[in-house]
Amino acid sequence: xxxxxxxxxxxxxxxxxxxxxxxxxxxxxxxxxxxxxxxxxxxxxxxxxxxxxxxxxxxxxxxxxxxxxxxxxxxxxxxxxxxxxxxxxxxxxxxxxxxxxxxxxxxxxxxxxxxxxxxxxxxxxxxxxxxxxxxxxxxxxxxxxxxxxxxxxxxxxxxxxxxxxxxxxxxxxxxxxxxxxxxxxxxxxxxxxxxxxxxxxxxxxxxxxxxxxxxxxxxxxxxxxxxxxxxxxxxxxxxxxxxxxxxxxxxxxxxxxxxxxxxxxxxxxxxxxxxxxxxxxxxxxxxxxxxxxxxxxxxxxxxxxxxxxxxxxxxxxxxxxxxxxxxxxxxxxxxxxxxxxxxxxxxxxxxxxxxxxxxxxxxxxxxxxxxxxxxxxxxxxxxxxxxxxxxxxxxxxxxxxxxxxxxxxxxxxxxxxxxxxxxxxxxxxxxxxxxxxxxxxxxxxxxxxxxxxxxxxxxxxxxxxxxxxxxxxxxxxxxxxxxxxxxxxxxxxxxxxxxxxxxxxxxxxxxxxxxxxxxxxxxx
Length: 524
Fold this sequence. Notes:
transport; 524 residues; three-stranded antiparallel beta sheet; Growth Hormone, Chain: A; mainly alpha; glycoprotein
């Protein structure tokens, strides 16, 4: 049974002795963000906030954006891809599944590289893997060769996932002061998820959405938002055999054009990062950034004893591991229910708006939560509850308990994805607080590792013959609902934040802290 003292700490009880030592040994001070001057505080620590932190954040975010866009290429154009390369739903699922597979294989190595060698030595090789992965996809459009190379490309892109998913809190801790960390993580995460959103629009725009209805005689081209809509009219006048061959060739050509665009953009981002992307600033931006973290492997091993951090990792792995992979195969999901009348293009727009909502939600919640950093548990709980309700409505539409309509489908999918993904920056930052003084790289590496294990298991179900798709929707609901009691059980301390605020551990009660005395700042 929990002690009375532990019950007084409903959100964050860690290693009191270690935090007290860190606090006593640290220097009291604060960083003024409006200048680029070095601020000297008591002791020997010199703190400085660099304006280039925004450039570093932007480039890292674009790296994550590109990695996500490459990963989510095939789901939004699944109908065309299946016809062009003779693929099945299982093939589409496995192309997405290479991300989690690669993460499970090397997901603990790259966070080590991030901590030991710094941001540059982790980001440059990762972005290189993304670029080479896109190169593999443009070599040929031959059915057999292209299929093999595309699988290889997706795996290489997946290797870049550990740094992309888990590196954002590390970057914010290295480059940003305490009062900007949550905001920086939210901005980076938001730009990153836009990479998953772009293929939902760009894919159907560049690639035709499958065969036209040949049973209908028409003198006008069918309505389509793809760049090849006019070709449907030409093909409808040809013999059925020629129609199929010509359509497949057109789809392959359009897919290859899409691959060239992706490859060019990935190459540009890689070149910019290669030219300039510093590992860390010359001076730390805050006190906690100057404190030496535990060694990576010993720190990673020590996480097993931090029960509330492990609980948070399970929450993140189960919920977001399933939901993000569920969203990546949304077109496969909706195409199984003809009564919804949702085609590939419409499914793409639903997915796009869902992730766009996640982008806006992450920014809003991240900025709002920065003002109430000790209330992160409450924000996460509310968003998970509302998200579960949205996904339940979506599932009830598909089993025809609720009448189907575009409005309900849009609102339920967009609302569910927006709410649960808006909690991601908070989960990252909360994980860093619970794990401190274990490094942010080790903590978020473990979080995202479990996330990818969850995604791998979810997508692997597609290998079961005739499994259908309705199981996806019940699983999505269950993955969120099962996390609700675990969120309620979270306790602990805001260890890292207390170091930055120089708050004595004896003053911490019920998520409230005494305001520290005015800081004495001397400019150099």
